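Posting here for the record, re: beta-D-mannopyranose.
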Amino acid sequence: MSKYQMISPEVPNIPWQEGPESFTGAPVWRYRENPIIGRNPLKGVARIFNSAVMPYEDGFIGVFRGEQTNGIPYIYLGRSQDAIHWEFEENKIAFVDEEGNPAMPVYAYDPRLVKIEDTYYIIWCQDCYGASIGMAKTTDFKTFTRMESPFVPFNRNAVLFPRKINGKYMLLSRPSDSGHTPFGDVFLSESPDLVYWGRHRHVMGKGSEWWENVKIGGGAAPIETSEGWLLFYHGVTGTCNGYVYSIGGAILDIDNPSIVKYRCETFLLTPEEWYEERGFVPNVCFPCATIHDSKTGKIAIYYGAADSYVGLAFTELDLIIDYIKDHSVVTAADTEIGKR
Ligand code: BMA
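Prediction output follows.
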């Protein structure tokens, strides 16, 4: 009998490998055959990383950040039977506007994919006279209709919650600057209709812990659990050789997710393997999605590695919640409602 519950569908075909008997740090382990997506994955695309996947029909579907050979990032659709081996559509996703006319963003990166009720939403970073949030919806993965950008620049790392809370859509985001932002806290905004966003609340700041002391940003869509919203996010530290991106974990209040109930003082995963330490941007583990099975508590975490590859890691609900709770350090700014 598991200690904690996930409130989400069962995913019996979730990809899985058993973990070790014991852990020296967090109970998160890598897929032994990582990376699951290597270099030059399709024509005209040099690297795929920072991508989001989810169950769909009898298999899986995903939106992938493809760095084209001209250096411009765009989003590509991929399908898989096992969520490990992926087949990509050759052309980038052809977004349209509400009238069905072509409406391609200038660039698009770091997509997240979230299902709310019967609609799938893609949320990414795009140009809107500066780095901003892009959003589109689809019900069939054939027609992708762009929506209004929720915020003015500069903002990145937007993540939708998988259901309305108190009747409102909820979105995490990370206000930023126009470059390689040297600061950044996570905020929560709500909307009645996915067009107008307001009641902005501070969720959590860059950490006092060294591994996340420069900036943080939302990662995978939060997982609803009996303890609150389980959030995997990225935390960044600065070194004499540049930024290092690690994966962190927090649990947000189920009805008021701007309140952080638990926040893990240690990273859950940090660059250690060659595909995380070596690549276009070394030392990056950047989570964008999970697949999770409510029956078994299995969680598969998808993360970009070194801006060059997609990595897969695993954990289990009871293990990760206990670890986050046992290592939780929250500040006053974390636990307050986030309004000043
Ligand atoms: C961030 C984002 C991510 C990227 C990371 C490391 O600012 O642009 O897409 O993975 O930097 O380069």
